[in-house]
Specification:
The structure holds 2 protein chains of 2 kinds.
Chain A lengths: L3 E4 L2 E4 L5 E7 L5 E7 L5 E9 L2 E4 L6 E3 L9 E3 L8 E8 L8 E2 L3 E5 L1
Parallel strand pairs in A: 2-11
Antiparallel strand pairs in A: 1-3, 3-8, 4-5, 4-9, 5-6, 7-8, 9-10, 9-11
Chain B lengths: L8 E5 L4 E6 L8 E7 L6 E6 L4 E2 L4 E4 L5 E6 L8 E8 L15 E6 L1
Parallel strand pairs in B: 1-9
Antiparallel strand pairs in B: 2-7, 3-4, 3-8, 5-6, 6-7, 8-9
Classes of the chains: A mainly beta, B mainly beta.
Amino acid sequence: DGGITQSPKYLFRKEGQNVTLSCEQNLNHDAMYWYRQDPGQGLRLIYYSQIVNDFQKGDIAEGYSVSREKKESFPLTVTSAQKNPTAFYLCASNPGSVSTEAFFGQGTRLTVV
Amino acid sequence: DAKTTQPNSMESNEEEPVHLPCNHSTISGTDYIHWYRQLPSQGPEYVIHGLTSNVNNRMASLAIAEDRKSSTLILHRATLRDAAVYYCILRDVYGGSQGNLIFGKGTKLSVKP
């Protein structure tokens, strides 16, 4: 079945370590997004990519990096520069049109100790 | 970017209709109105979207005011599985957000048996 897959579901890391979250989609979507969600809050946009080999910063990009070398993959690296990385991270994809629905992964819960 | 305003929380009884309001007084002519919902510890799920006319699908109905400054998501018979946070979002390809999904805090719907 087509969909968007995030892995792992839970991730624990020590403070100061970089960590990469995986996001893969087989929907042939052009646009992909990364969001961060803190407890009781809405989603905040970290990075987005409208096309392969191109990506843009969202509202809270500091301390994060991404790549978009393949259409189906949009990994997010949480670097040691991110001051408060513990959060729920969500990846989404969309064909690229505002008149179509976006699909979300099930999220990765990152805990930094 | 055009913003939306939703009540923080609402309650409903099981098997009764639920009307979730959303105000978007600064909506532009090219903004699509999207609704998503998020169950605890899951990624958001698409519910419905529309531009000017009312829309129906198997999950819900979307009623859009004639001046488009407000809309209402209608769940015809609430079930316990409908308990979630509901987000009303505007998407405009011509806006600065390039049609990105910009989330607010949404409305937390509780359903009582």
